[in-house]
Design a protein that fits this description.
492 residues; Rossmann fold; two-stranded antiparallel ribbon; 13 helices; rod-shaped; Alpha/beta hydrolase fold-3 domain-containing protein; coiled coil; AB_hydrolase_fold; hydrolase activity
Length: 492
Amino acid sequence: MASWYPFSGTEFSLKRYMLRQFIGTVLPSNTDKQLQWILPSTGTTYTRYQRSLSSKSAVVSESIGHGAWVHWIGPKTNKKVMYYIHGGGFLLPIFDGHLKMIDWWRTEASKHDVDFSVAVLEYTLANHAPWPTQLLQTSAGLAHLLQQGYDPADITIAGDSAGGHQVACLLSHIIHPHPDVAPVKLGRPLAGAAIMSGWLTFGITTSSWKRFGTEDAMAPLMALLRWSKLLIETKRSTGDDFYLEAALAPSDWWAGLGSATKNVLLTAGEREGMVDDIVNTKRKMENVSRYSDVYLEGQPDVITHPLEYYLHNPRHCCISTSRYISSMALSGTKQLQKLLVKEAKTDEKNLKRAQKEVSKAEKAFQKSIKDTQKAKKKTELTIKKAQKTAKSLLTAQQSHDDAVMKLDKADQATKEARDKEYQLEQEVSSYQDCLTDVHHSKILNDEARERKKAAAYIKLRQDQVGRGTEGVGPTSAIQTTNLSGADVSSTA
């Protein structure tokens, strides 16, 4: 048995960080049908990829029955073949990054004079066909390769994430044939099996899930819980515990692993949510398998998902993984060890160089963060000043509006006062006219009374004179006032 951890430490890449945040946001927030509507099918992606190559590689797709297909990369005339099952939570089709990664593996293997082709399985997604349809199709794909005449010793099976789950299921099926799936008769063990970041259990109770589950962007927790629901419901109805969740299988479940494959590679990240399940499965496999070498490859940073490593740094994309697969294609564990020893120094130099680049990028990133924080503070201060100014302007505007309102009220009051003053003037004028009329009337009345008095007196005196009753006495002069104010005198 062997266990090998080639890397340790932490790497950082802003581009990888942005990708992880994108995946962590898009996958959990969209329904399965929305994601499948956005993404092209595995067959469509494969066809586009083959036609995009400068060599204009042939599009070779073969139906293997049960609704599944095998798509070929590289000539079928190659003696050795890799049988690849893609990941995607059983609900997403293949990405072109998977195909680029596979082609990169072929290029790396050719540097060691190893030529192999890849048969990519297109299986039915879980929301279109229940379990164990996927195991049936995976088994049918391997059976198809055997029927094509490929020697089991020249076949390597590999898969990532849910595809790694299918690799573990296929190994379980070879050792313990599933009652609903036709058994696979190998004759002799496969060259090897690679389970890369395998989704080996649907539970999230391990310490690694508790520690790293929320930051493992290539396996978004909420999306995995939603996707695993379909398979968990199937598990309850079928009781296929160890097929569906290889991490729950006891050690003796893998006792016949040596009859299924010569080598098993499991990859796991130091801070990956699934790392505990992967490590535990590796230990169970190597504890009971006498005829199969089990390797565990540890990678730095959050995850070792091979697709992510390829997309952002092909030169360092799971280098040991590609060498391991190349060695499995050669069916020689000793050759693997020689390759690892021979290139360990080169890896160390590359790693140091990469760490320097990462350190430089980290410093630049930290500087950009500080600059951003300064700019943010400056912006916040400017915003506060603007808000204060706006508040002052608002207060001034309010005061202006209040003043305008008061002026309007004052103008209205002035107008009303003027109207009232005019009315009073009119009333006073009318009152004065009345007084004048009254005064004239009084004068006329007084003159009339005086005339009457004078007339009465004159008549009285005349009557006295006429009757002779008036005695002789001193002469009296009587003065009266006429209407014009002239004096009238008479002598008795």
